[in-house]
Design brief:
single chain; 68% helix; DUF5995; DUF5995 family protein; mainly alpha
């Protein structure tokens, strides 16, 4: 399969600068802030991608870096939008609106952020990367899969680390039911399909914009469901 054109990087923010911004956010936010919970998860993924690049795990490191950075820029842009008191994309609104809700569990915050980032941002990041690199989505599939595999490997750890302990058993069942209604694997597959559709629609910008808007809204709706308050106020 032909690889992307080997052109000089056209990425505004290198991976190490992205990691620095995420670490600064981690230091600035309260640990229980819902955005901080997701940020810690995403920082771990980005650091893992950086290690993969450094150890030659990606067949095309330039393509992997481009996808990783374009992807991260979508999240950091949403953070910046909120900091500037503007409305973020619909997919991110539930997390920012409910980030301090006392009845929402940390695992819900983490998965709601992953839902927004995978369900909406990843497809757009693939298209952004293809435009930067001068290639089609199929030529980024290996990098897409490896980044997705890193996220999947972290999902189980996230659930184990952030699920409630035995002292909260009386509300564990509804939480388990709620989180079981969402799958990272399905979200990743849908993101790949959306990326290919958007690439096919690039000559029809009006249709592509409508598709993106509807995707944003649908992912935001799923995020709001993931953030359904399940605990009594003050449980934390």
């Amino acid at each position: 399969m032909p690889r992307c054109e080997q052109v000089p990087p056209a990425v505004d923010t290198p991976v190490d600068a992205v990691i620095s911004r995420m670490r600064a956010l981690d230091a600035a936010l309260h640990p229980r802030d819902g955005v901080a919970v997701f940020n810690r998860v995403y920082l771990a993924v980005t650091e893992a991608v950086d290690r993969y690049v450094d150890t030659g795990r990606f067949a095309d490191a330039h393509a992997a870096i481009t996808l990783d950075v374009r992807f991260a820029q979508r999240y950091l842009a949403a953070v910046g939008t909120v900091a500037d008191t503007r409305r973020p994309p619909a997919c991110w609104r539930p997390l920012f609106q409910l980030r301090r809700h006392p009845g929402v569990r940390p695992v819900q915050f983490a998965l709601a952020g992953i839902n927004a980032h995978i369900g909406h941002d990843l497809a757009l990041a693939v298209v952004d990367s293809c435009r930067t690199l001068g290639c089609a989505p199929v030529e980024l599939e290996d990098e897409f899969d490896m980044v997705g595999d890193l996220l999947v490997s972290l999902e189980e750890r996230i659930r184990d680390d952030l699920m409630p302990g035995p002292d909260l058993f009386r509300i564990a069942d509804p939480l388990t039911h709620l989180l079981g209604s969402w799958s990272l694997d399905r979200a990743r597959d849908a993101a790949w399909t959306a990326a290919r559709a958007l690439w096919a629609l690039r000559e029809l910008p009006d249709v592509a914009d409508e598709f993106t808007e509807r995707l944003d809204t649908a992912v935001g709706f799923a995020g709001r469901m993931l953030l359904t308050p399940l605990a009594e106020p003050g449980w934390r």
